[in-house]
Amino acid sequence: MANDLIHAYTLNIDGLSVWVQRKRIRHLYLRVRPPHGDVVVSASHRHTDADIQAIIKQRYDWIVQQRRRLAEREQRMPSTPTVHEGAMQWFMGAQYPLVIIPQARRNRIELTSQAMHMHISANADERKCLDLLQGWQHRQAKKQLTALTPGWANRMGVEVAECRVRRMKTLWGSCNPLAQRIWLNVDLIRYSRACFEYVLVHELVHLLERGHNARFYGLMDEFLPDWRQRREQLNGRYAID
Ligand SMILES: [Zn+2]
Q1: Distance 223 CA to ligand 1 centre (A)
Q2: What is the pLDDT of residue 129?
Q3: What is this structure's pTM?
Q4: How far is the CA of 75 from the centre of ligand 1 (A)?
Q5: How many degrees, rounded to 5, is the angle at CA 133 between CA 93 and CA 123?
Q6: N-term to C-term CA, the chain
Q7: Order of strands across the sheet with 181-185?
Q8: Domain 144-240 bears CATH identifier 3.30.2010.10
């Protein structure tokens, strides 16, 4: 947890910039963090910089491989979509080239089977285009969430007081079981319906079981037997709380 952080600094090891976080923990953890492949080491005060250096050298090939994987993913589906003419856009697991249609009376996005049409005023800059796209993504995600939630809640016998779509930096979804509140990351709208549904069901299962324990995964297997394949498609961009 962030509040365990004692102090942090950067180490340069064989040309690799390593962000070291000193925490009140027992073990040493190495992560290659999305989206840009930052190398992060969490260590206790007992570990020396030499220990960290040794781990980095030992895991060097793995780090390089993880960074390559992240770079490929980032190229395939950038964290922040590029919105110039012809740029590929993902929507519900399919790709559409962006067609910008200027001088629109009303700014809007229309999806055809071949392309994403962005109707926008002629003088709109890239920021305006991105705002329009993100607003549209938000509405589409909300629409999908509203369509899927009642059926699943009913099937699972849970009550949902509030379900919302949010732009989140690190999580696909989260659940507050006490408040019966579910939040899903708006970015899910770029992935298939199967992925969207997987995160939703994961969060709904938390209304029955708070922890990620055997009971939790038993319920996942019961409600969504192919959840592991669905998780695979999500490609680990964010964590699932
Ligand atoms: Zn969870």
Answers
A1: 15
A2: 94
A3: 0.81
A4: 28
A5: 145
A6: 13
A7: 162-166, 181-185, 171-176, 239-240
A8: yes
The predicted pLDDT at position 117 comes to 97
Structure tokens at 19: 């962000």
Residues 6+ apart with CB under 8 A from 107: 119, 120, 121, 124, 132
Q: Residues 39, 17: contact at Cβ < 8 Å?
A: yes
Kindly report the backbone phi and psi dihedral angles of residue 95, in degrees, each rounded to the nearest multiple of 5, phi listed first. -105, 140
Residue 10 Cα to ligand 1 midpoint, Å, equals 31
Q: Which of 61, 63, 68 lies closest to 41 in space, CA to CA?
A: 63
Domain boundaries, the chain: 2-76, 88-136, 144-240
- Write out the chain's pLDDT in tens, 241 residues: 445 788 999 999 988 999 999 999 989 999 998 888 999 999 998 999 999 999 999 999 999 999 999 898 888 888 889 999 999 999 999 999 999 999 878 999 999 999 999 999 988 899 999 999 999 999 999 999 999 999 999 999 999 999 999 999 889 999 999 999 999 999 999 999 999 999 999 999 999 999 999 999 999 999 999 999 999 888 777 888 8
Q: Could you tell me the CA-to-CA distances from 169 to 80, 120, 173, 184 in Å, in that order?
A: 11, 28, 10, 11
Q: How far is the CA of 77 from the centre of ligand 1 (A)?
A: 24
b/e per residue, 208-241, with b = 16+ CB within 10 A? ebeeeeeebeebbeebbeebeebbeebbebbebb
Instruction: Please choose, from the candidates 171, 170, 174, 95, the residue with its C-alpha nearest in 3D space to the C-alpha of residue 162.
Output: 174
188 CA → ligand 1 middle, Å: 16
Alpha helices in 107-223 (DSSP H): 126-156, 193-205, 214-223
What gap in Å lies between CA 113 and CA 135, rounded to an integer? 21
